[in-house]
Amino acid sequence: LNLFGGLRTSLATCGYANIKEFQKAEVMIAPSLATEGKALQRAQGVGMGH
After folding, report:
1. At 3, which helix (H) or strand (E)?
2. CA angle, 38 then 11 then 22, to 5°
3. Cβ atoms of 6 and 12 closer than 8 Å
4. Segment 19-25 long-range contacts (CB within 8 Å, at least 24 positions apart)
5. Phi and psi angles of residue 45, each rounded to the nearest 5 degrees, phi first
6. Which residues, 6 or more positions from 47, have their beta carbon under 8 angstroms from its beta carbon?
7. Over 80: is that where the pLDDT of 50 sits?
8. Residue 31 phi, psi (nearest 5)
9. DSSP symbols for 10-42
10. Residue whose C-alpha is closest to residue 25's, from 4, 45, 10, 43
């Protein structure tokens, strides 16, 4: 379990430089963020779902 590595990755993914800024981030709950919207992408013929 690499808690600090996960935190560092999350900060970078969201574009925050420090934890103070990161605490202001809006939280989003998604069952599967990796597949979110893939059906729409396939239908439009764009993105990685293409």
Report:
1. helix 3-14
2. 110
3. no
4. none
5. 70, 35
6. 37, 38, 41
7. no
8. -60, -35
9. HHHHHT-SSHHHHTTPPP---S-TTTTTHHHHH
10. 10
Per residue in 1-49, pLDDT tens? 689 998 999 888 888 999 999 898 888 776 666 666 777 778 888 766 4
Residue 47 to residue 50: CA distance in whole angstroms: 6
Structure-block tokens of residue 5: 């590595």
pLDDT for 20: 93
Amino acid of residue 42? R
50 C-beta neighbours (distance < 10 Å), count: 9
